[in-house]
Amino acid sequence: MSTVEKVKDENSCAICGLALHTHEIGAAIVDGDLIEFSIRSWGSVDLVVCSDCWKKVSRNIDQTYDKALERRREIDPAFTPEKKMNQD
Ligand SMILES: [Zn+2]
Asked: Quick check: 39 pLDDT over 80?
């Protein structure tokens, strides 16, 4: 069974929450690994996102970190990136 065939018949976008027809799905994660930082736990996730939300997510994935930092500092001028704990 292909990944596309594993998508359920009843879907809603994991970001905007709208019910979707299959042809409106922009992307799906099936049996994806999940790290839930708030409870420091590993799990798995199946989700779909609509085409509009996928465009936003895809654009943000392709965005450089410098652009993300610029956008963050527009709303939080004092924002300073954290240093990784395992850096030398
Ligand atoms: Zn959506």
From this structure: yes
